[in-house]
Amino acid sequence: MYYLNTEKTDVCDVLLTTTTHWQSGAIRLGTGSDISHASLLVDPHVLIDSTKEGVQSRNIHRIEYDDKCSIHLMRLKEFLSVEQKRLIVNFVRSKIAMRYNTFQAFVSGAVQHGLLKNGPKEERMFCSRLVAEAFASAGIKLVENPVYCTPEDLLQSPLLEEIDDISLFVPNDNFISVNHGQRNFDQDMKDRTNHLLNTVRKICPKIETLNDIDWFLIQNQQYDADILKAFVESGYLSLENEIFEATQYLYNPDAFIAYFQSDSVKHCVDVSLKEDYSRHYINKNCYERYVKQYHLKTFEALKNLYEIITEHVEARFECALEVLDILKPQDYVLGQVTSLDQTSCSLKKWDGDLTQITLNSKLIKIIDEKNINENSVIYAKLIDEGNGCFAFDDFIKLN
């Protein structure tokens, strides 16, 4: 058993894997491949995939891989723009809870390779379709037919390249899994989302995703009380506060350091400060508009939920900054960009020193992607190149 080290993972990476289940063996036999499943990373630590439980998100740190299972981390060869990443990630997030189509997944290989002239009309989702259609939504055609393709087709896509040495690690006797002694909130969210949708589908069988509930309610406002009851009884609205109560160490600097110990800085930089939470603010603003426009109790409850979520996001962010201020890691600096051109930028550290950063083409693209400009406050890991010059190894924009 091993885990995937996320040091080399990135947003919009494609993860191709398999399992020891007989269904996986049948897929591998039928496609002549060593893999049977595809998923998409929406964050370096979070993937979204389509399984028999529907389309759901999962924390990579909770996923255990069998020693006998193959794994491939694939990345688009060409640079992805901010807009393309946004479209790809938004596409898969919009499919959360969509049901799985076993038959269409089974015949996908035959359709992709011409053994079946036309596949059945597209309905619901399966793993490789989710990934291929996500990229297609951003104008990137990974395979000939995104509607019907297999994980092996994605593996062989000429637009993707495999990331070597993806740092799989085998736990030793001292390793404590993220699953150890903790509730699996990923599974809780799956269960409550599916409970919610199974209830709502009794009202309207055509509903597939959470977004569909909004549109149905706007068109059928007489069901407001029934939809709100489904949200409440599923536990969907209360899970955020349950997670908050169970993860108080993410909100108190001393508890944070006691919990993560030597990994405190790494968790701050790689998770707490780097995760993209923008969708929560978008959802909060959306439901604020819906409340003003439609005056429905369901939308009021969802507005309140996202107000709580964004408050928690900001509190975790502030806690991470306080942790870094306490630990003061020597290889990271907190500072403000004072000048920036196509070859270099100057960073004013909080102690007043100016650090000259040399920029290569990759850094220029990253700076552009993160919208770094003069007066941006950043947290950066620096590599000393001598002569008073440094280069970024990693950095996070804080404002």
Topology:
Blueprint (H helix, E strand, L loop, with lengths): L2 E2 L9 E4 L4 H10 L5 E7 L2 E6 L2 E6 L11 E6 L5 H13 L7 H11 L14 H10 L14 H5 L4 E3 L5 E2 L15 H19 L6 H10 L4 H11 L4 H8 L6 H8 L3 H9 L5 H17 L2 H31 L4 E9 L3 E6 L4 E5 L2 H9 L7 E10 L2 E9 L2
Parallel strand pairs: 11-13
Antiparallel strand pairs: 1-8, 2-3, 2-6, 3-4, 4-5, 6-7, 9-10, 9-12, 10-11, 12-13
Helix pairs in contact: 2-4, 6-8, 10-13, 11-13, 12-13
What does this structure look like?
- The protein is an alpha+beta fold.
- It has 3 domains: 3-169, endopeptidase fold (from Nostoc punctiforme), CATH 3.90.1720.10; 185-327, no CATH class; 332-397, OB fold (Dihydrolipoamide Acetyltransferase, E2P) (Beta Barrel), CATH 2.40.50.140.
- The chain contains 14 helices and 13 strands.
- It has a 6-stranded antiparallel sheet. The protein has a 5-stranded mixed β-barrel with strand order 9-10-11-13-12. The chain has a two-stranded antiparallel sheet with strand order 1-8.
- Strand 9 and strand 10 (344-349) form a beta hairpin.
- Helix 2 (82-94) runs antiparallel to helix 4 (127-136), helix 11 (264-272) packs antiparallel against helix 13 (297-327) and helix 12 (278-294) packs antiparallel against helix 13.
- The chain is globular and about 65 Å long.
- It starts with a strand and ends with a strand.
- The relative contact order is 0.09.
- Mean pLDDT is 85; it is low at 174-180.
The largest β sheet comes out as:
6 strands, antiparallel
Number of helices: 14
| Mean pLDDT over all positions | 85
Query: How many β-strands, per DSSP?
Result: 13
CATH architecture of the largest domain: Alpha-Beta Complex
Order of helices and strands: EEHEEEEHHHHEEHHHHHHHHEEEHEE
CATH C-level name of the largest domain: Alpha Beta
Q: Helical residue percent?
A: 40-55%
Q: Describe the global form.
A: globular
Cα distance, first to last residue? 40 Å
- Give me the CATH fold name of the largest domain: endopeptidase fold (from Nostoc punctiforme)
